[in-house]
Each structure stands twice: as C-alpha cells, then as structure tokens.
Amino acid sequence: MAQLTYREAVSRGIAQEMRRDPSVVFLGEDVAGAGGVFKTTNNLLDEFGSERVVDTPISEQAILGATMGAAMTGLRPIAEIMFSDFFAVCWDFVANEIAKSRYMTDGQVGCPLVIKSGNGAGLRFGAQHSQSIENWAMAIPGIKVVAPATPADMVGLMAAAVRDPDPVLLFEHKALYSTKAEAPDGEIIDELGRAKVLREGDDATIVALAFMVPKALEAAEVLASEGIETTVIDVRSLVPLDTSTILRSVVHTGRLFTVEENPRLCGWGAEVASIVTEEAFWDLDGPVVRITTPHLPLASAANLEDLALPSPERIAATIRGSLG
Amino acid sequence: MSGDRIAFVMPQLGETVATGVVARWLVSEGDDLVAGEAALEISTDKVDSEVPVTIDAVVGEIVVPEGEEAEVGAVLAWLVPIGTASTSSIQLPDSATIMTSSPPVETAPFPVSTRGKGGVASTVAAPPSTPYPDPVLWSGPSVSAAGVASSQARALQPQAGLLSQTGLLPQIGSLSQAVPLPQVPLLSPVVRRLAAEHKIVPASLEGTGRNGRVTKRDIERVILGRATPDPAIVEQTVEQATVEQAALERHNGVAPTDAGLSFSATQGSSPQLVASSTVADMPRSGGIATATITANVSAIDHARTGVLGRTPFLVASVARALRQFPSIAGDPEPTISVGGRHCVGAANLRVAALNAALDAARNTGHDGAADVSPLSEARPRVVAVWDFSETGSVVVTPATDPTSRITLSLQPAEAKVVASLEKDASSMRVVHGSTLIATYRTDLDHQVVAAFLTRIADLMENLDWPSEAAS
C-alpha cells in the first residue's frame, strides 16, 4: 500500500492496461508530449512510444472518429476529451455511432473503447468548462458510464473499462486530481456496475458520485456528531447501476438522499429516486430527497460556484431538516 | 338590522399579508349577488385577487371605497343575505355575522388561489433555512388554531381512515396531500406495511417524528417489545376497522390490499342493480368520489314525493350508511346538513320534514342485510338546510362546507345507457340514473369513501319506503 494521487492514478491505470495488452492505445489533445493539460498522462509517451500514445489535432470529432475506427478494426483505444463539456460537439459519434454499432451490426462489430474526460466543477473554470455531464451520458442506451471518486477506484475502473467489450465513458473529476489516498500495490482490477458502501448508519442512506462523495462523507461526519447515523454509498457506476446495493441500504434505513453535482433536472438521482420508489416504496419512511446543483449555468466566481454546488453544510442541513 | 346583515371583510390573502387595497368594486350598493360572484378586486404587495362572496346576498353598504387600504379582517361592506344564514357563518356576540370571503386558510379544504408566497403552502412547517433548501415534502401539516374557535377545531379533528390506521389498507393518496389539516398524523409507506404485517395500530403509539408522526423506529420498538401500544385505542380502532372492512369487502368486492389511486367497482348482488363508483384522488383539493344510482331512482321520482324530492331517501340512506362507516361519520352522533337549490325559503319546514323522514326510517323494512342495524336512539340529526345542487342540467361539484368531513351531492336523474353483462346474455338498456358525488377531506380514506357511496347507492336502490315517509 502506498499513497497515490487521483491524478497519478489516471496514468497508472492506463499504463497498467497498456503493459498488459499491446492493442491498447491512447490518443487525445496534448496527452503525449505535454503529458496532459492536467498532467494526468505524464510518462506514458516515454514508456509506450508515439505509436501507442498519440497527440491529435484540436478536433474532438476527429479524435472520436479515429477512436471508433480503431476499436472497430481490432484495437482497444482510450481517447481523452479534455473537458467533458466538449462532448457537446461529439454526440453524433458517441450517441449515434459508437453506442449503436453493436446493435446495428447484429453484434458483429463492437466498439471496445474508453473515452475518458475531465468532468465537473470546483476549479473556477466557468460555465463552459465546469459542467457535470454524467446525466447526459447515462441517457444514451449503448454506452456505460463510470465516475470514480478515489485513486484506487480510478485505476481499477479504468482497467475494467478497457477490458469491457463495449464503449465506456469514464469521467475523471477535475476537482479530485490533487486528492491522495492509499492504493494497493500491483494490478488493480475493478468491476463496472458495483457501488461501494463507504460508511454504515441506520438513519438514512446517502448516495453520491465522484466529487460529491467526499462532501457526503464530510456531511455524514457532522451528522454523526449530532447522533444521526447515515450510510454513504459511492455509486461509482451509473450504467450499469448497482441498484441492489442501493435498495438493500434503503430497505434498512427507510430514507434516501441523493447528492448530485449535475443540474437538478433529469439528474442521475432522479433515476435512482424513481427506482427506489418503484422497488422499495413500502420500505420508505419518508420521501426520497435530492440534493443537487440548481438548474443553472455555473459561475466562475469562486463564491458563486461554491454556493451552487452541494456543500457538506447544505447536505447535512437538508438531511437534518428532513428526518423525523 | 344588525342581526340580518353580514360583514364582508378583508380576507387573509397570504400569511404575511396584513393589509390590502381595495383596487376596484365590481358591484354597487343594492346589487344582488349570487354565491361565488366576485365582489371586488383586492391588491396586496403579494397578490392581486378577485374576491367572491360565498352566499347569496344583497350589497347593503360599501364601507371602504376604491383606492383605500384596509387591514385584514376590516369590514369592507355590509351584505344582507337572501334566505337563511349560511351554516359556515360564525355568530358574533353583537349578532352580526362575519363572513370571510374565503374560508380561513387553516381549514380551507381547497387551497386559496394566490399568486404570491404564503397562502396555504406557508402553513406547512418550513424546513430549516439553507442556501438552496431542497424541498422537504415530509413536513407534516402544522396548523395554527388562530381564527378557529377551539370547539370548532375539535370538531374538525379528523380521524384518518381506520383501515389505514390499522395498516390494513395502504393509503397511497394521502401521502401527497398538501392541504393543511389539523395535525393529521401521516403514516409513511414502511410504517403502513410494518403495521399491517405485525397487526399494530399506529394511532395507538406515541410518535417521535415531526408533529408526532409515527416513524419506522417507533413501529420497530413495538415489534421488538420495547414499547407498548395503548390498548384502549387498539381495541376501539380494530373494532371499528373490522366493521368497515366487512362493509368494504361486501360492497366493493375487492380485497383491501388492492389499493390504488383510482378505484372502481361494480355491484352485482341483484340483476336490477347497477351501482358503480369511481374515486379520483386529488392531492391538492381533497378527494372527489362519485357513485351512480340507478334502478329505483325513477320509481322514487314518480312516487309523488312532493317538494322534498328524493332528499328524504338520500338522507335516510346516508344515515344508515354512516352507521357502518364510523371513520366517515367521525362522531357517534354525526350531524347531517341538507340543502337544495330551491328549498332555502322553506328551510325550517324541511328540517322538520327530514327529521320526520328519519324517524320513519328508523325501523323501516330494508333490503334484509344482516349487518344493518336499525338506527339507534342516537340517530343522526338534520340540523340545517343549505344550498347544494339537487336540480339542474349540469353535473357540478357540490358546494363545500369547510367544516364538513364529506359533502354529498345528488345529481338530477337522467337517462343512462347501461351495459349489462350477465352469464346468459349481454344487453344494453336505458335506465334512469343519478350520480352521487362526494367531496371529502383527504384524511378520509378514498376506498372507504367509495364503499360508503356504493352503500348509499345500494340503500337508495333497494329502499322499500312506506309512503308516509315521503309525504
């Protein structure tokens, strides 16, 4: 076990898979020579060479078109879309082509690829570089969506994504890059579609994703000091979604709170709330409550951005006010 | 004069609104007004609103002219009622009668329409202030007793549907209710389920949740033997629930677990009988239920029932049905207010006549159902006649008395085509049917209401009244 940063975990995960499988390649803007604009892919060019670690022109469509072609013809490419906001110019490839190829070729042509991207707010990048788009992504049938919150999960889920036979979108959270945690030595291989219970309590279940996970844990600490014991679940994977872990916990606690960074309307927590209401209605001891960013473009001003995102204080206050 | 006139006062248009400006009078002194007609426009810092009168009246004197400000409760005009006083009026010591233009917010069965904050929603307990307070919908309704006399408040204290109290009948509809009612203990889904599984009466527990709500924890304490229900409440509730469940099963033909947001049942105990009922759950405005009465309605109408029409049959049927539905009666001696659109002038006569009809009904022969006990000495009393629609061509929502638990309106008989599905033949035939509409408070269980209406329809269709009952 050693300390690992979330930033280092990105390149460790990619390197682990590139060492294992020579068909894994990596491409994106400034990912090779510059080592990534967030320095997440340092040293990959040195180790694997320019055949397998490729800088591309500034064209997201070109990156994903090339990635899709590579995947259809035998490679297992990993592409980087620098800011997840830029998926907005990529949806034809992602939603219409990559997500559909296996279905429309009767299973003959799959797209075993990974698109990794810097997602989320907290770094004062303003409305066009701070969005949480996991809810856009999960709305498209045919792609899987994961968003790790810890360095070890980053390595393990990257491995699982690369090994998956179908396209996976992996969201790195930009505000987590500098965070650090213990990670096992050697290969880490995780599983898509498995949530993690990080803390157990009897009074309520909190489900969170990515940057909201540490905030939910902080809120849980505060609530515990007041005698309110909560279970905190890191959802980790939106598609597939680990409904059994969530339902099992809600059946125990009777209350569910979602903590979501995506804007409120059609956020991932709405889907969770819907599932829980259908499947565990007679175990609910109160309404499912969603704690989200409001439905607005994010400000770059620090105070306004902080105000918009769910904070530990707001999470704790909402839960405190709603229990009883 | 003072005994006859009614003060028309500045309404409370929002909880934080203290004054309003009379923007425009829509009527002049001497004008005749029909209940529901807008009398003036009021402007406050939160809302602009037209304010209707709630009784038929003549405008006696306009006190506050246009453009002037008046405090909430201040007399804006004096009205002279046409006919008798409204039962919803409150007698004041000087014998003038206060009529607020809308029911008090705290007891309004329908939300007062306001465009600003405040109003009905503001009476719901607010969650702690946060920068972006997420909606905390679970806050139970809390009610200020201000403006409601304590005896009235007690009278309004509802009993949640008894089947729900025992957990025997999951009651989905009331979960979404937003109508403020006096301290209704909401039961969450898990509490209902656990109560049903373990035969626990939630009402017999001391709730530790907000507003005394019985929580999952409270139920679990009983299951684990760490708390004991109040045996008296358990006994009383179970006894009443058993009666209701039997009635429910007999008249709906559905098991109580078949809960749903809408409900319909067809009665088929006799080939002549086609009684059906539907219930629509309306979270914001309380429930509305209907039942169709057919078969003998035309016979009743032709039975020379005189000016009283079908009313005695309805009242007597209601009185009998109430015996079987204690949660709807809400009181061992329920009060039935009866009215008809065209009977206001002879109100006192009708009260006496209807009570006579009830007396006659006490030991009247019946459809022979074993569970129908004769009306006891503590029979329901008809105390007042007020206006509701008995005739007319349009099916309307009945006028609602805010103090009523349930308001029934018997619509005029009309020809209906009825499909009859029987074993040997399917046929279509024309019958004369009449729709019975109930508007009820959301704390009543909608399935129980449906069964109640079906029972009334059943009784009305099968009554074998002595002719003097209607004379």
Account of the protein in words:
- The complex is a heterodimer of chains A (324) and B (471).
- Chain A contains twelve helices and 14 strands.
- With 324 residues, chain A is an alpha/beta fold.
- Chain A has a seven-stranded mixed β-sheet with strand order 3-2-4-5-7-6-12, with helices on both faces. Chain A has a five-stranded mixed β-sheet with strand order 9-11-10-13-14, sandwiched between helices. In chain A, strands 1-8 form a two-stranded antiparallel ribbon.
- In chain A, helix 8 links the parallel strand 10 and strand 11.
- The model of chain A has no long low-confidence stretch (mean pLDDT 96).
- In chain B, strand 17 and strand 18 form a beta hairpin.
- Chain B is built from ten helices and 18 strands.
- The two termini of chain B are 37 Å apart.
- Chain B has 471 residues and is α+β, with helices and mostly antiparallel strands.
- Chain B has a six-stranded mixed β-sheet, with no helix packed on it. In chain B, strands 11, 12, 13, 16, 17 and 18 form a six-stranded antiparallel β-sheet that branches. Chain B has a four-stranded antiparallel β-sheet with strand order 5-4-2-7, with no helix packed on it.
- Helices cover 23% and strands 21% of the residues of chain B.
- The C terminus of chain B is likely disordered.
